[in-house]
Amino acid sequence: MTLGKNNPLRSVSWEKFSHLTPEEKVPLFCQENGWPYHVLIAQQFDRRLLDRVCNLATKTRKIAKTKGGMKFLQDLCSEKRAMLYFSQPSSRTFLSHYAACQIVGIKPAEVRDAHTSSEVKGESQEDSVRTFSSYFDMIIMRHPEGGFAEKIAWMLSQTDRPVPVVNAGSGKDQHPTQAVLDIYTLQRSLEKRRGGIEGSKIAYVGDLLRGRTVRSLAMLLTHYPGVKQYFVAPKELQIGKDILEFLDRHNVQYEITTNFESVIPDMDAIYMTRIQDEWDKPGEKTFDNSAYCLEPRHLGVLKESAIIMHPLPRRKEIPVEFDADPRAKYWRQVRNGMWVRAVLIMMIFDRDREIDRYYEDLMTE
Amino acid sequence: MTLGKNNPLRSVSWEKFSHLTPEEKVPLFCQENGWPYHVLIAQQFDRRLLDRVCNLATKTRKIAKTKGGMKFLQDLCSEKRAMLYFSQPSSRTFLSHYAACQIVGIKPAEVRDAHTSSEVKGESQEDSVRTFSSYFDMIIMRHPEGGFAEKIAWMLSQTDRPVPVVNAGSGKDQHPTQAVLDIYTLQRSLEKRRGGIEGSKIAYVGDLLRGRTVRSLAMLLTHYPGVKQYFVAPKELQIGKDILEFLDRHNVQYEITTNFESVIPDMDAIYMTRIQDEWDKPGEKTFDNSAYCLEPRHLGVLKESAIIMHPLPRRKEIPVEFDADPRAKYWRQVRNGMWVRAVLIMMIFDRDREIDRYYEDLMTE
Amino acid sequence: MTLGKNNPLRSVSWEKFSHLTPEEKVPLFCQENGWPYHVLIAQQFDRRLLDRVCNLATKTRKIAKTKGGMKFLQDLCSEKRAMLYFSQPSSRTFLSHYAACQIVGIKPAEVRDAHTSSEVKGESQEDSVRTFSSYFDMIIMRHPEGGFAEKIAWMLSQTDRPVPVVNAGSGKDQHPTQAVLDIYTLQRSLEKRRGGIEGSKIAYVGDLLRGRTVRSLAMLLTHYPGVKQYFVAPKELQIGKDILEFLDRHNVQYEITTNFESVIPDMDAIYMTRIQDEWDKPGEKTFDNSAYCLEPRHLGVLKESAIIMHPLPRRKEIPVEFDADPRAKYWRQVRNGMWVRAVLIMMIFDRDREIDRYYEDLMTE
I need a labelling partner for A341 at 20 to 30 A (CA). Which of A286, B114, C36, C354 fits? Predict the structure, then answer.
């Protein structure tokens, strides 16, 4: 697992690396068995990997139901230490990764005041991260600057002690584990309801321009044949053209509309999002998204077999009354994130086959 | 233990719940075995429960003396994770609960910047806590708003994944685990000295109006027959009438006085408190409590068998010279808090009988 | 190990203690087996102790290479809890100690907002630390005030529950574990290259006046016969006279120079430091240290067997191009710190002989 000198990222110059497309970068983030060594971009997740993650997440959830199973899980990576380097405040993403670490037994530590401490003393951010990484076996990283996690993964790969890097959100673009947990939520719910994600109709609603989760999810869903995607948003906040071109290249069906009510009855999954007005300039007027909110009367219109998702935090897009409806899956989605992140840590450290073995024993007991 | 749909709080509307008296709420916070599922209010602690907690705390302390015993304890709740949600800074209460978690092996995680993170994004506090709770098996919570911990316990009980809530101080009113550790300190010290708490004389001194610890302790001591309580404070900071009425209802003897020196010689326990001037309005003159402080000359007046307590932090109420006196129990009181909190976690997860078994084996070895 | 009433610090008054020389204090910080109980000052480390620490660090590193070895290590102090009390922000020192705790299995907890929490309520800092210490088995402490860690160690020794204190940097003077990790780095590198530290030539370069690491290292190197020390700095930032007098007393050879280039070719180790301008008064002009920086052309001048060290963080004293050179040991130095700190915790709790036994088994397998 410790790729060391065999790390494929090692042999690429920064100059060359920074000009690669995401698809070209993917093999550089892999370990020898083909699974991710670094988890940096949503493009790493092809269908085979998504199926593996979903399968492991379900097995892990079931194993975790007993004390014996939890002890087995906690032993998986118990000799390892992880650093959670969060330069942006984000309690939910932090806690989800922290709990994922606890589940697989990797000992977590948090960096705080990373800026203060290093900047005061005139240290480069690269040196700071390298110093901190010296004490740990992996880095889970959130950073406001786009591409920062990739830069760190590349930089550490040049050293004698590379460690895997998990991107827990960098800049406006990538938050790969969020997209994977969304896929797992769809897979888990739609498998029971209609046999799988394939051929389903999925609507994204709200601020599709600035939310990175929808962008990543739209790309990952191209791995599921027959899915039709609906982008439901006001013109000012409609999904980026690059995503539509990506879907075109993959011959994926989609519709663009401003009319939320018209699509509700047909959908198998509705993915609500909030207005991301933290990107607005100060004083700018926040968009009124009333037409892009679920309302109690929609419960009757929505298919019985449909599901409602939301990456949270929500505002008024989904009234609290929806929470008790069996179609509301956004709270389960939160917990799925923890399982998916636990699974990715196991895979990074090549411990995932131990899950298969334990699960098989459990089933034959 | 996972009460789920059998959770008694589930079947009560918020409207109804919020109009119940504390005594009426008590059964709603219990698990099937009668012990607390949530630890929210001091009124939950009747004599049977107090005796059980004291008994378990003493056993746990003794078990903890060896490495083998510590390993046994650390295994008790080792498959569980706890979230410490402290929106008020309080290192001492935080650390006491954190260490308690470590003792029983429950993996702790801390929420920080809870406000920042959620408020920025326009999320309700209820949604934030529910999100965070998704990753954990219990919540230990401190909050400036009175009743907040109860509100969260009720709210989570309505969901598919209720988790127990321990109130580590909410608002000016409830801090139930503090009251229980005070009882344990009295029980532990007075049992040796005079056979128990029953029939003893206990004085509270200082700011009795604004300190929640004395209010709770005064109520809990009604479970011990024959105790006489002395409220020693200036008129402006004397104990609230509601407490005195409570004592009257329970036929408990008490005295109210401004004369500290006169009561010292008779007391079995003196519970000192500081002036809680953080509740003063800015610019308001802090009360001069010189007449409500222990002074070196009092050491000779105090009974040899008496004890001195203080919830800490102290100011000048107890001079540092007292610390070495065997009657000073305020440092032991601090440590008792850790044991009592560890015990409550075990009880919440129904692991307390394992303590009985281990202890019995230990005694018969 | 729990020294309790046998704690030698207990029998000394503060008045007397505070007038002792560092050398006179050393025996007061020892446990019965002669190893440190408290780690407070660099003067505690004589040659016998340094050799023991280096030996244990190397064994620990090797044991840590397997999962089985890591589990053995994590069990060493697994029943203990440590408090990391850092009142100064210092992510690197904090994380190094935190990881060291995780390695030997001692459960870490962090104190934050220690000031806020206690000062608001008018508590003395001594009371705060004593309260916090009640929950833990050792304290690892960083504080801006010189001598603070010693004061706390003395204060706790007077109580019924003394716990060991590790000084992780207090004031401008002592940061003993840094000096020990420097020795370990020298020992580990120079042993292979030239058979040991003895008789080597070592240059310190940069701000020797205000950096405490060089001061401590210069003193510790007096335990290695034949070492010649070179103090390379501008006059304004040259090493303190007290250190030179100390070297004189120990008949240690040294040179003082402003000419960095002239010494490079002869050195076995070059210890670079940054300008510590955080001690400058606001508005004061920072010293231009261009003449005290390594430059790419120096790589050819430096001996093949020499090593380059730096306590980090660095600025421009060492260009990034040096990082890939096998003589650059500053990144390894960082990781050595973690091992040395893990070793000191084991020694404090008298678990170090378990390392010897495990290592012997490992070697004879």
Answer: B114
Lowest average pLDDT, out of A204-213, A302-311, B40-49, goes to: A204-213
Q: What are phi and psi of C168, to 5 degrees?
A: -100, 30
Reported ipTM: 0.94
Quick one: closest CA in B to C127, which residue? Answer: B313
Asked if domains B4-175+336-360 and B176-333 share a fold, the reply is: yes
* CATH 3.40.50.1370 for domain B4-175+336-360: yes
Residues in a beta bridge with A30: A36
Phi, psi of C334 (to 5 degrees): -55, -50
pLDDT over threshold 90, residue C170: no
Report the pLDDT averaged over residues C191-198. 95
Question: What confidence category does residue A15 fall into, taking pLDDT thresholds of 50, 70 and 90?
Answer: very high
- Distance, in Å, from the CA atom of C171 to the CA atom of B21, rounded to the nearest integer, reads 54
Q: Are A37 and A29 in contact (CB under 8 A)?
A: yes
Q: Which of A253, A266, A263 is nearest to A233 (CA)?
A: A263
Mean pLDDT of A195-223: 95
- Compare CB distances from A127 to C89, C96, C313 and report the shortest one's residue: C313
Domain boundaries, given as residue ranges, for chain C: 4-174+337-357, 176-335
What is the per-residue pLDDT for B212? Answer: 86
Query: How many C-beta atoms lie closer than 10 Å to residue B89's C-beta?
Result: 16
Q: Is C117–B90 a contact, with Cβ atoms under 8 angstroms apart?
A: yes
Q: pLDDT band at C288, cuts 50/70/90?
A: confident
- Please name which of A323, A315, A267, A321 lies closest in space to residue A292, comparing C-alpha atoms: A315
Chain-centre distance for alpha carbon A13: 28
Record: contact C158-B314, CB cut-off 8 A: no
- The class level of CATH for A4-175+336-364 reads alpha beta
- Arithmetic mean of pLDDT, A281-288: 73
Of A102-116, A148-162, A193-207, the range with the lowest mean pLDDT is A102-116
Q: Is the dihedral of CA C151, C155, C158, C159 positive or negative?
A: negative
Q: Strand order of the sheet with strand C138-143?
A: C107-111, C81-86, C138-143, C165-170
CATH of domain B176-333: 3.40.50.1370
**Which helix (DSSP H) or strand (DSSP E) does residue B74 occupy?**
helix B67-76
| Amino acid found at B135 | Y
Distance CA C269, CA C138 (A): 35
pLDDT tens by residue, A1-10 = 556 667 889 9
Helix (H) or strand (E) holding A358: helix A352-364
Of B71, B74, B89, nearest to C117 by CB-CB distance is: B89
The CA distance from B330 to B346, in Å, is 25
Chain B: touching chains (3 or more CB pairs < 8 Å):
A, C
Q: Tokens 């620490």 correspond to what residue?
A: C53
User: Which of B81, B85, B219, B217 minimizes the C-alpha distance to B149?
Assistant: B85
Residue C307 has a pLDDT of: 98
- Check CB contact under 8 Å for A81 and C91: no
Instruction: Name the catalytic one among B25, B97, B142, B298.
Output: B142
Q: Are B116 and B59 in contact (CB under 8 A)?
A: no
CA B224 to chain centre: 17
**Domain spanning C176-335, CATH class:** alpha beta
Reply yes or no on whether the pLDDT at C1 is more than 70: no
CATH of C4-174+337-357 given 3.40.50.1370, 3.40.50.300, 3.30.830.10, 3.40.47.10: 3.40.50.1370
Q: In whole angstroms, what separates CA A122 from the centre of its chain?
A: 34
Instruction: Report the run of H or E that residue B192 belongs to, with start and end.
Output: helix B176-194
Report CB contact under 8 Å: B161, A331: yes
Smallest CA–CA separation between B117 and chain C, in Å?
19
Please report the pLDDT score of residue A259 as a whole number.
Answer: 97
Q: What is the pLDDT of residues C22-48, one digit of tens each?
A: 999 999 999 999 999 999 999 999 999
